[in-house]
Write a structure and sequence with these properties.
alpha/beta, 2 domains, five-stranded parallel β-sheet, four-stranded antiparallel β-sheet, elongated
Length: 298
Amino acid sequence: MLNLKEIKLLLVEDNIGDARLFFEMTKEFANIEMKIRHEKRLEDGINSLEEEDFDIVLVDLGLPDSIGFDTLIKIRDYCEDLPIIVLTGLDDQELGIRAVNEGAQDYLVKGEVSANLLLRAIFYAIERHKLLKKLESKSITDELTKLYNRRGFLSMLEQQIKMAKRRDEKFLLVYADVDGLKGVNDNLGHNEGDRLITDAATVLKDTFRDSDIIGRIGGDEFVVISIDSSKESIELLKKRLVDKIKAHNKHENRSYQLSMSIGIVEYDPNHPVDMDELLKEADDLMYLEKQQRKKSKN
């Protein structure tokens, strides 16, 4: 059994009697403090997820403002990092099974839930979700840099685009290509090439905020989602990256210099483009800068 002392739970349930029953059951949990926030509508539940951090969500699939399987899909978009247990009626068990197949950790049939069953479901849901996230992180992480790999980053970008549309918020997509990696590999060996890549990753981490999302999607290609940024901050962002690269080169004093060509585009939900087009626009700008650098050297 888990060693959890406190669990923050969001309960989205419109039936006052059922909600009261869940509150009473949690009082029977020994040595565990349950902090429960109760909402009656899906919209209010989603607002709660934006306002507070929770450990788990219990949601009824029959709410005043959302009915059936769509309820899970809507709330899942807002809490992909949280385990979800769905609540169904006696005649909706097939819906519960379908919900589990689509990402919920478990389902409970109202009227058949005891305190022990509820506690076990909560514990198992949290543990199962942690395990899945651990396994998932291995499949979406670049082994060399520990950043998101291509699969992981594209998944995060897709999610960010959806979020930007819902919240009417802009963000910047940065495409960065490490200059001269092939030359370092050919002349100094692949170990030194790997060092160049990890140096680039470190500089990008130092340049961007913790809330921004960084990925390595190719051998020498990095991409960044800069959240809460707009066109007005592009030049400032470029300058900060250039300054970080200069500081790195001065400090390391290696036989080669770290250099990156970058392209930055803004995603505007009022003028949306799909993910592939957004990446292409940033890539094209990056390539243009790389070509201009080559011309200036000749």
